[in-house]
């Protein structure tokens, strides 16, 4: 096993103690053609559940929008004492990809005693697909300012140019112990290219230095309908030290079958930092979800781990029950709650995509 050299700060696992969840209120109608109105009630339901357990911070474009959102939240029986609003303009709502990653000092013996928490503001280029992303590109630094955290924007050198490293939160998943999951399709492909000119070893060095990881498990491809070109949070997630949930598709005629089988095989061959195999828990895929002949990236793996609760997307599918029952024993002490996402997924993301967790940190 060739280990990487980790930096002094580490990105904690999603189940680590946290201070809040951040979301952005939807306003881009073109993301949900024909279903824009129902999506607001999905967001309100997510806020209602989360506010029972932790602080929820909501980005809105202005005070008028805030008044409308409050009206929807009150009608949805949300406890507003655990909800705050921030007037921060956005292009889209997918804060998993545009919000800051908060990295913390490593608690291991020999770590830098002077290190302190900071927010990483990666470059965001609209998934190398959408031109209207400039407001979203400022979100990470803006939230970091509200959190009173110093901001760091990773830069790399290529052919005499200094370039900001591009990364979205949905492209990676970590166990907080030194291992990171990602896909070759997202970070290494020339299609929807994030970091032109960077090969695998350079990408690995940057991720290790910035996120405190010692090894990267590379999966191959993401799922059908995913316009991010291979985000890992639809296919494989850490749920505990040494435990990975991985999506699978039983039907050999489905276009997801082959890539998910390959990903499962790679995960079963992977080893943790102690050389032990991971426990791999297979999570079913729902039947294909279409709207207006467009296949959508519906996946139960896009769940969100919050304080004492895990929100799981559901699709009025027979596999909903199996997915919830599969996840329940993996999160002792947390309630597993299904959230109907057949409308939300038309925007090409669901619960993990729309949320950004902020771990507890000491300034």
Report what the structure shows.
The chain is an alpha/beta fold and 363 residues long. It has one domain (9-359): L-arginine/glycine Amidinotransferase, Chain A. It contains nine helices and 21 strands. The chain has helices at 36-50, 63-75, 95-98, 139-147, 184-187, 200-211, 257-269, 319-327, 351-354, and strands spanning 9-10, 18-24, 55-60, 83-87, 101-105, 118-120, 151-152, 155-158, 161-164, 173-174, 179-183, 215-219, 236-240, 243-248, 279-284, 289-291, 294-296, 304-306, 309-314, 335-340, 356-359. The strands form seven sheets. Strands 1-5-6-7 form a four-stranded mixed sheet. Strands 4-3-2-21 form a four-stranded mixed sheet. A hairpin with a 4-residue loop joins β10 (173-174) and β11. The longest helix has 15 residues, at 36-50. The protein is globular. The model has no long low-confidence stretch (mean pLDDT 96).
Radius of gyration: 19 Å
Treating each run of at least 4 consecutive H or I residues as one helix, how many helices?
9
Question: Which bin fits the share of residues in helices?
Answer: 10-25%
Number of structural units classed as domains: 1
CATH C-level class: Alpha Beta
- For the residues shown, what is the average pLDDT? 96
Order of helices and strands: EEHEHEHEEHEEEEEHHEEEHEEEEEHEHE
Query: Structural class of the secondary structure composition?
Result: alpha/beta
């Amino acid at each position: 096993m060739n280990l990487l050299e980790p930096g002094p700060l580490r990105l904690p696992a999603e189940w680590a103690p946290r201070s809040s969840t951040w979301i952005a209120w939807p306003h881009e109608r073109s993301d949900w053609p024909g279903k824009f109105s129902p999506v607001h009630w999905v967001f309100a339901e997510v806020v209602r559940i989360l506010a029972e357990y932790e602080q929820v911070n909501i980005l809105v474009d202005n005070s008028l929008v805030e008044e409308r959102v409050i009206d929807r939240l009150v009608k949805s029986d949300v406890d507003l004492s655990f909800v705050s609003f921030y007037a921060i303009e956005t292009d889209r709502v997918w804060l998993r990809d545009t919000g800051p990653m908060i990295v913390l000092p490593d608690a291991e013996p020999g770590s830098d005693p002077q290190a302190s928490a900071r927010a990483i503001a990666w470059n965001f280029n609209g998934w190398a697909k959408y031109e209207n992303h400039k407001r979203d590109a400022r979100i990470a630094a803006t939230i970091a300012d509200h959190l009173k955290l110093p901001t760091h924007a990773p830069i790399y050198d290529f052919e005499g140019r200094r370039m900001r490293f591009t990364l979205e939160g949905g492209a990676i998943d970590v166990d907080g112990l030194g291992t990171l999951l990602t896909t070759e399709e997202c970070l290494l492909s020339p299609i929807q290219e994030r970091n032109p000119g960077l090969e695998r070893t350079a990408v690995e060095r940057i991720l290790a230095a910035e996120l405190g990881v010692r090894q990267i498990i590379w999966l191959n491809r993401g799922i059908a309908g995913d316009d991010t070109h291979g985000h890992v949070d639809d296919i494989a997630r850490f749920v505990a030290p040494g435990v990975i949930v991985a999506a699978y598709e039983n039907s050999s005629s489905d276009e997801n079958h082959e890539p998910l089988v390959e990903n499962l095989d790679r995960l079963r061959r992977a080893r943790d930092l102690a050389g032990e195999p991971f426990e791999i828990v297979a999570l079913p895929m729902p039947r294909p979800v279409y709207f207006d002949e467009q296949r959508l990236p519906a996946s139960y793996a896009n769940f969100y781990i919050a304080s004492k609760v895990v929100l799981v997307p559901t699709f009025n599918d027979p596999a909903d029950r199996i997915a919830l029952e599969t996840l329940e024993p993996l999160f002792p002490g947390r309630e597993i709650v299904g959230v109907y996402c057949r409308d939300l997924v038309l925007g090409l993301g669901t619960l993990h995509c729309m949320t950004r967790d902020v771990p507890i940190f000491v300034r």
